[in-house]
Amino acid sequence: LLKRPWNEYYPAWGYWNNVLINVAGFVPLGFFLYGYLALTLRVQRAALIATLIGMILSLTMETLQAFLPTRDSGITDVITNTMGTALGFASCHITSILSDGLAESRYATVRYLAGLFTARVQGQDAAPESVCSEV
Known about the structure:
Blueprint: H1 5-8, H2 13-40, H3 46-65, H4 75-102, H5 108-115, E1 120-121, E2 124-125
Antiparallel strand pairs: 1-2
């Protein structure tokens, strides 16, 4: 149950491929969960909550995999999945910073897309700043 990282490591491309897949698989979770918590629910410490939810989900999945005969469970997967969740919320945070500046663009399509990642509602500010102030 949950192998130690130093017992899981092997110096081959397959190991690093699994690490990249685990990180990339949880980026969307972190991105959308942070966006939902910060933009829709206006939760304080949305980044911390999103990362903790990603870690708990990963730990649950890895614990359940220990009971499947064809799967291995390990702490490395929990760490990399949690890193993917954190990378996802960071990318949402950066996107909201960039979108805040674009929300004043003279192009309607750019304003609309930027508005998806900012706190603006129908041309009026719902909050004084974008999601970036929530971190």
